[in-house]
Design a protein that fits this description.
Helix content: 25-40%
Strand content: 15-25%
Number of strands: 13
CATH class: Alpha Beta
CATH architecture: Alpha-Beta Complex
Order of helices and strands: EEEHEHHHEHHEEHEEEEHHEEHH
Bound molecules: 1-O-phosphono-alpha-D-glucopyranose
Shape: globular
CATH superfamily: Spore Coat Polysaccharide Biosynthesis Protein SpsA, Chain A
Length: 300
């Protein structure tokens, strides 16, 4: 397997796995995909797509499942809506929608067909990605950029343009949480992060090599697809991306990018509520009012 560090190829496409059933959000997720639940006024999936666009991604690949068709509708044009807004002179709304609208021919949708794990979901995108590096964003993880304002994937792209290879964003988690995430074993430090020496999916706390969790943003080389093709099942009886990345580590470099912003795990109720509170407090229009509401609710 070639070490792709020798030639740094541009990352043009991003994969968004959105096939999960979202059972933790029943009954809300019965007919509304959990990725369409809103943090303030934007669906969870749109946060990840905006982050990818900011990082220069040109083509958005969604790995979906049954009952997720509304995600495809969300990224299509809605002519009646646009005409109505135009006739009412709602210029700001039209501009906001235009900023978030992928260009025609720049989205692809494929179906995972069966819930066999994240590794299998990523593998389902292999034909659409082809032989080029790609970004992977797990939309449940909604990220707030650090003080410099640069999103997680855009910062990872800066690192990638220097180092090539594979990049995984990582951040500290509580020791009690390591069994919920992929955990990396850090090696030597370098600007912006560290070399990755190993990784393990959902370890028992006593076996975890660190408390640096994989936070849901990756830049991967296409050789991962060959490994996913024959990846045995791992943690939870699922085909795990982390297991295939560990095998790729034998042939290629992995760099751990230290994400300094804030990540909300919107796959859990607490994370979802926390994201809503933080983004609402930051919102220019409603922030001050929400602060008052929270203060008075807490005083009761
Ligand atoms: C997946 C990955 C895991 C990562 C996590 C981030 O797990 O397998 O390595 O830490 O996403 O959200 P999942 O949340 O699908 O169980």
């Amino acid at each position: 397997m070639p070490d792709s560090n020798s030639a740094i190829r541009p990352v043009r496409k991003a994969v968004f796995p959105v096939a999960g059933l979202g059972t933790r959000f029943l009954p809300a997720s019965k007919s509304v995909p959990k990725e369409m639940l809103t943090v303030v006024d934007m669906p969870v999936i749109q946060y990840a797509v905006n982050e990818a666009r900011e990082a220069g991604i040109e083509h958005f690949v969604f790995v979906t499942g049954r009952n997720k068709a509304v995600i495809e509708d969300h990224f299509d044009l809605q002519p009646e809506l646009l005409e109505t807004l135009a006739s009412r002179n709602k210029t700001e709304m039209l501009e906001m929608l235009a900023r978030q609208q992928p260009e025609a021919g720049r989205t692809s949708f494929t179906r995972q067909q069966a819930p066999l794990g994240l590794g299998h979901a990523v593998w389902c995108a292999r034909d659409i990605i082809g032989d080029e590096p790609f970004a992977l964003l797990l939309p449940d993880m909604v990220m707030k950029a650090p003080a410099n304002g640069t999103g997680c994937l855009a910062s990872m792209m800066d690192v990638y343009n220097q180092t090539g290879g594979n990049i995984i964003a990582a951040e500290q988690c509580d020791s009690a949480q390591v069994s919920s995430y992929g955990i990396v074993a850090p090696g030597d430090r370098a600007a912006g992060g560290f070399e990755i020496k190993g990784m393990v999916e959902k370890p028992n706390p006593e076996d975890a090599p660190s408390n640096l969790m994989i936070n849901g943003r990756y830049i991967l080389q296409p050789e991962i697809f060959t490994l996913l093709e024959n990846q045995a099942t791992g943690a939870g009886g699922e085909i795990q991306l982390t297991d295939a990345m560990l095998r790729l580590l034998d042939a290629q470099s992995f760099f751990g990018y230290d994400f300094k912003g804030k990540t909300f795990d919107c796959g859990s109720k607490e994370g979802f509520i926390s994201a809503n509170v933080h983004f609402a407090l930051d919102n220019e229009e409603i922030g001050p009012m929400v602060r008052q509401l929270l203060t008075s609710a807490l005083a009761q």
